[in-house]
Design a protein that fits this description.
By secondary structure, the chain is of the alpha/beta class. 23% of the residues lie in helices and 26% in strands. Strand 2, helix 1 and strand 3 form a beta-alpha-beta unit.
């Protein structure tokens, strides 16, 4: 079981902010080591947490045996676990859209925080930026730290991840937009890339903090699987140590700093 470390949210407390959305976390068995820290952090900023699981992976392959039942048992009384069937008529690239739409339809909360399980929110940074509420925005995306291979390897480049939004902006058409959450950035009522007032990103994105086998499985089913020869890139990269002082990742080509891990994860440094 992953444990939240002391790098953040030591002083964050539930109820410490007037805007307490429902957090909807999209997850699968490839993300299972991230679910605990994601939920723990989300509970610090949320009224309620919902974990949404599909009975299949992105490529339609059945989920890992026992994963769904184990997740339900682990989070009983902590988060609601919603399970939906894989829609064979949908291409795999719609999987995340489908997951979020299932969670949105089930929610009655006026504000939603939409996360993937590998997006860990920093509650202190969140409270710091949103201490007076969301302002005039219907949706807000957050600046994020991006990690590769290890919790110790953090990119110097800042990305964006997560979405805080009004539930009323969603319909089936908007939920299944090809740009997924990022289509909202073209709307004038959206504000993106929020940092805390102290200048820190609000999300830690552990997207490629995986073993080689998990990376290969991830690449089989995600929406960018046809963009490059991911299998060759993964195998070549994972065959050698990553030198944080000079190496760049094969996904974005970012440079890296060596940092203290934000949490502890099984099987990953």
């Amino acid at each position: 079981m992953a444990e939240i470390g002391q790098a953040f949210h030591r002083s964050a407390t539930p109820g410490g902010h007037k805007l307490r959305p429902e957090t909807i976390i999209s997850a699968c068995s490839l993300d299972q080591r991230f679910i605990a820290p994601c939920v723990d952090a989300a509970r610090m900023v949320s009224e309620r947490v919902q974990i949404v699981l599909c009975d299949s992976l992105f490529n339609g392959e059945p989920e890992q045996s026992g994963f769904i039942d184990a997740t339900k048992a682990a989070y009983s009384g902590i988060a609601e676990v919603t399970v939906f069937p894989f829609a064979k008529e949908k291409d795999g690239k719609w999987h995340h859209n489908q997951s979020r739409w299932v969670g949105i339809q089930k929610s009655k909360a006026p504000y939603l925080l939409l996360l993937d399980a590998d997006e860990i929110i920093d509650p202190n940074a969140y409270h710091n930026r949103l201490e007076t509420g969301p302002g005039p925005w219907a949706s807000i995306s957050f600046a994020c730290f991006w990690y590769f291979r290890s919790l110790r390897f953090r990119a110097r480049s800042i990305e964006r991840a997560g979405l805080l939004c009004q539930r009323g902006i969603w319909s089936e058409d908007t939920a299944f937009n090809p740009k997924e959450r990022y289509f909202l950035e073209g709307r004038r009522e959206h504000s993106h890339g929020w940092h805390s007032f102290s200048g820190l990103p609000i999300i830690h994105h552990l997207s490629w903090v995986h073993t080689e086998a998990e990376m290969l499985k991830k690449a089989e089913g995600w929406g960018h699987n046809g963009d490059r020869d991911w299998e060759s890139l993964i195998v070549e990269n994972m065959a050698k140590p990553f030198d944080v002082t000079k190496d760049k990742d094969f996904v974005h080509g970012y440079s890296y700093d060596l940092v203290e891990p934000i949490c502890r994860l099984e099987g990953i440094e």
